[in-house]
Amino acid sequence: MTSDSTLNSVWPHMHLRGKDMTYSVTYPDGREEVLLSVPKYSFEWQIAYVFDEAIKLPAGSILRVTAHYDNSAKNKFNPAPDQELPWGSQSWHEMYFPYFDIAIDKNVLKPATTGTN
Fold first, then answer.
1. What is the tens place of the pLDDT at every residue in 11-52?
2. What CA–CA distance (Å, rounded) separates 75 from 11?
3. What are the beta bridge partners of residue 102?
4. How many CB atoms lie within 10 A of CB 21?
């Protein structure tokens, strides 16, 4: 983050082979914090996680998301464990979208000038 910001919520999004997803932040002082851990991700239960108290992220903070998949026959939701898995928007494809709801101060982004003075 190049400026102070506020993290209001996150939304882990994968499809049928999603196994787990973890959101974390490394602060400028080197301290690390897990913000959300979804150890048993379920495609049937996708929600946005709104923090009880918004998380202040000072400039220089680094957000990370780690996710894993289960493309094996042991995953009862996997429609085709014997096939190569493409990225795609359909449920039988797979995707990885770790959404963030971040707010920054309105004064950080200056309106563009029109070029006329």
1. 999 988 999 999 999 999 999 999 999 999 988 887 899 999
2. 22
3. 7
4. 21
Q: Which helix (H) or strand (E) holds 13?
A: strand 5-14
Sheet holding 62-69, edge to edge: 32-38, 18-26, 62-69
User: How long, in residues, is the chain?
Assistant: 117
CB contact at 8 A, 13 and 42:
no
Q: Which helix H or strand E contains 7, and what residues bound it?
A: strand 5-14
Strands (E), 15-82: 18-26, 32-38, 49-57, 62-69
Inter-CA distances, 27 with 17, 50, 68, 71, Å: 31, 20, 24, 34
The model's pTM is: 0.82
Determine contact, residues 31/58, Cβ cutoff 8 Å.
no
Cβ 18 vs Cβ 37: under 8 Å: no
Q: What does the block give as tokens for 47?
A: 């929600």
Confidence of residue 1 (pLDDT cuts 50, 70, 90): low
